[in-house]
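Cross-check.
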Amino acid sequence: MIAFKFLARGAVGPFTGFAWPMPTASSPGRWVEVAPELLPDRGIHACLADHLTYWVDEELWIVELGDVVQRLSGQLISSRGRLLKRTAWAREVANQLGKACTFRARDAAAELLRRNGRVQEANGLLGCSELIELQAVARAISKPCKTDSLANLAGYVADAATFANLGDIGTVAYIVAELARVSTRTIEASASERAWQGRWIAERLELSL
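Predicted model, tokenized:
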């Protein structure tokens, strides 16, 4: 089974510190194996496109998983895996994703404000074209009253813009997914937002979905 795996620089597991055998120009990386009976507590972890932003790191790899594959929430676990190819994921692409997520959140918050008669605040958000500007405008909307649930949505947008400026894309993805959950009061909306984020990566890098 073909899947995706985020790793730290040098194809190192961010949680385990394990250095994965890397592929060469002519062959995949060496198989890494875990006894099947140790699953799911231990195993080779990867994911599908819809779950990519749960695991954002410096390098994104296409991997092959072996015979035993368990599907858990947001991840795949197998007893065998190997690296096939590193994708074109890079800091520039990550920053583009952060900006795309933040402005998508801005549009969602603005639509809710507009639908509730708060056209001036909605237009203020929609008039922003840069992250720094959006951060300031959204923060100003969210500050006056902490019990104002609609204004609080702008706070999510401000936080997303802040972390996007810092290049912390994993946190941006989380905040935007939380905005979707809070504004709709459904877990499904959060999962749908995560899936959109993953598809953005796959499409931007021309990966098979």
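The chain is about 45% helix and 15% strand. The beta strands are 2-7, 32-33, 44-46, 59-65, 69-72, 75-78, 80-86. Passed to J.P. for a second look.
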